[in-house]
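hey so i finally got around to running the thing on that chain from the lab meeting. sorry it took forever, my laptop kept dying and i had to restart like 3 times. anyway pasting the input first so we r on the same page abt which one it is
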Amino acid sequence: MKVRLLLGLVVAMVVAVGIWPAPAGADPFKGPPICSSAGVAVSGSHGNLTIRGNAYVPGHKTLRVRGNLWVAPGACLDAFTKGTVKVAGNVVVGKGAVLALGCTPQSIGPVPPCGNTTTKDVVGGSILADRPLTMYLDGDTIGGNVISNGGGPGLHGTFLNFPVKDNTIGGNLVIQGWRGGWVGSIRNTVAGNVVFSNNKSVADPDSNEVQTNDISGNLVCRGNSPATHVNPDDGGLPNTVAGRKIAQCAKL
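ok and heres what got predicted. didnt touch it at all, straight out
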């Protein structure tokens, strides 16, 4: 897959209209911090939007992007709140950047800021990440693909999670080459293929969980360490796959 070419084409499309620098004060509607600092609140309607530094979507606000949203290299967008994000185009995540989008009762804890609510964040196009530090994708509706190539804090860096949970994805889900604490694909509905390859962790034997997904295409898992697996202790169930289950995922 020509992931880097695809990312380059989409990045070239993004013309920044709004730029949000860091830092700023905390906000009472913000949930547990995802970014290294609170950053600034971002909401309202934009054409194309570039996030620089740290920013977050307040729990009582809506962020609408009529074009593309770019999280610049090293930046962080924390929408792990009750706020709403709607992007008509693509979301592009740069090297070392963090995207936290959406929140469900099953999100990372100990207490998700959305409580028992599932947010309704929508990306009309694709989410394309080139060497991100991490992403938190929970309960989102994505019209196109989710593709993440490389990145992470490294095998001996800060422990970070990379959860992709409870999303509806209209295209393919590809997570490849991430190095960090824990990464997994859980309870996603994917209209295309799922490719989970060369993701590595030495910090968590439960990393690389691929479970309880409903996949209309193929499920391909190669070169992951630990090997991809279903974890019943975490409520995991086998995946429903209309196509083929290949390599490490042959029995998942």
